[in-house]
Amino acid sequence: DADVTQTPRNRITKTGKRIMLECSQTKGHDRMYWYRQDPGLGLRLIYYSFDVKDINKGEISDGYSVSRQAQAKFSLSLESAIPNQTALYFCATSDVGTGEQYFGPGTRLTVT
Amino acid sequence: RKEVEQDPGPFNVPEGATVAFNCTYSNSASQSFFWYRQDCRKEPKLLMSVYSSGNEDGRFTAQLNRASQYISLLIRDSKLSDSATYLCVVNRGSTLGRLYFGRGTQLTVWP
């Protein structure tokens, strides 16, 4: 079984809709991250959490919110989706000792 | 200035070729360095960490030059399966755990 899972894997939604992307991990890591990836722009950090009580904004947090429900779960919400939020979204966890990050398989989101 | 800069390529090489990718980082306080590999539309996966003394893993060799703030990845005897995008990644010391990603260098190995 995958260590980091994301649901849904693909989603098409309309402008103005609220949508939640979910991430779960079985690696036992405290640190979790949400990224988006757009062609030619690389990975950009949206939010990150170093433990259940810690939430931090990344480079591009506007239009997004997150919830860390438990050590193993970190969800990303788009309160009112807009077309330029169409992207590939990745969740990741990291090992405190090595700093290495482990990614989920991604969610492909299309906002029409 | 971007935290991490890479030549985006693309690099197109024949099987068996040796290819090198370079990367520079802007923050001298950076402490950890990595190369990730990303296949088309898939998640990035750790290829190797980069240590100060340089390190090798089979056909892959990574080097770090702290004075020049420069990281390299050398792939010898390229295989078709090496075709992917290679991401240079840096962990800035002041925010340990947060990684900064380069935009990636695209490699295509042809038969």
Q: What would the keywords be for this entry?
A:
heterodimer; A: 112 residues; mainly beta; 7-stranded mixed β-sheet; 11 strands; 0% helix; B: 111 residues; 6-stranded mixed β-sheet
**How many beta-strand runs of chain B?**
11
> What structural category do the secondary elements of chain B indicate?
mainly beta
The N- and C-terminal alpha carbons of chain A lie at a distance of 33 Å
SSE arrangement of chain A, N to C:
EEEEEEEEEEE
Give the overall pLDDT of chain A as a whole number: 93
Ranges of chain A where pLDDT stays below 50 over 5 or more residues in a row are: none
Multimer state:
heterodimer
Portion of residues in beta strands of chain B equals over 45%
- Low-confidence runs of at least 5 consecutive residues of chain B: none
**Which word captures the global form of chain B?**
globular
Strand content of chain A: over 45%
**Taking Cα atoms only, what radius of gyration of chain A do you get, to the nearest Å?**
13 Å
The radius of gyration of chain B is: 13 Å
The largest contact between protein chains, plus residue counts on each side, is:
A-B, 23 and 21 residues
- Main sheet of chain B? 6 strands, mixed
> Helix count of chain A?
0
Fraction of residues in helix of chain A: under 10%
Question: What is the element string of chain B, with H for helices and E for strands?
Answer: EEEEEEEEEEE
Q: Which structural class do the helices and strands of chain A define? A: mainly beta
Overall pLDDT of chain B: 91
